[in-house]
Amino acid sequence: MLQIPRALIDEMVAHAREDLPNEACGQVNGLNGKAVTAHRVKNIEASPYRYSMDPLAMLKLENEREENGETLFAIYHSHVASEAYPSPTDVRQAFFPPGDLDREPMYPEAVYILVSLADDPPQVRAFYIRSGGEIEEEPIEVCNSADSR
To answer: What is the mean pLDDT of residues 101-126?
Structure first.
């Protein structure tokens, strides 16, 4: 079960709402297997149907993680009008080249967090995307920030 601080959940939901009508996206850094910080990344698609993270922002976050001894805990994005479940496009994008499902995903240890604004309150769920495009839901335990370190 993933432990994610309430502040990070709130940040991802706020980001999703602020980027309407488009999908929001970002990354969550981890330390010692725990989620510690959420980072907004520009959706260069500017679309309510898909997202693509700004590659320069992703590189900057990767460098910061290396400097701080952190890992990529999660990739998050929002669905503006559908459930918090990976779409076929989301699954294809988890691989490089996109859609090559016979390989390992680009970030096999990272979880994919989806924020759905289809309902109020928003639904937040987490999934691992595995080789072959298999989707495994991972339960989230929302905790206090002090509990997560």
So the answer is: 96
Condensed to tens digits (0 to 9), the pLDDT of residues 72-102 reads 999 999 999 999 999 999 999 999 999 999 9
DSSP string, 125-142: EEEEE-GGG-EEEE-EEE
User: Which numeric CATH code is attached to 2-148?
Assistant: 3.40.140.10
DSSP β-ladder status, 140-143 and 2-5: parallel
| Dihedral of the alpha carbons of 48, 54, 55, 60, in degrees to the nearest 10 | -140
Enter the pTM of the model: 0.94
Q: CA–CA separation, 36 vs 73, rounded Å?
A: 9
Closest by CA to 51, choosing from 104, 114, 138, is 114
How far apart CA 39 and CA 108 sit, in angstroms, is 19
Break the chain into its structural domains and give their ranges. Answer: 2-148
Nearest to 105 by CA among 137, 88, 89, 128: 128
